[in-house]
Write a structure and sequence with these properties.
Blueprint lengths: L9 E6 L8 E2 L6 E2 L5 E6 L7 E3 L1 H5 L9
Length: 69
């Protein structure tokens, strides 16, 4: 998992379940985010092409757990 904050400032947007219409893979746990599941969209300001969709728990806990190998 690449740390999006290593690219500098990030914009984080919370998506409500009614806004989540597609499936995504969370870069932290590598599991799916199903349509209708609330989650975060994280976009590095200077690298918007690195936008990723994160589970709420994965994003909120990213600094408290050890990195995956």
């Amino acid at each position: 998992m690449d740390d999006p904050e290593s690219h500098g400032e990030v914009n984080v947007k919370f998506l409500q379940p009614y806004q989540a219409r597609k499936s995504y893979i969370c870069p932290n746990c590598n599991r799916g985010i199903s349509p209708g599941t609330s989650h975060y969209v994280v976009v590095p300001v200077h690298a918007p092409d690195l936008r990723r969709h994160w589970h709420r728990g994965c994003w909120d806990g990213r600094r408290t757990r050890t990195p995956r190998r």
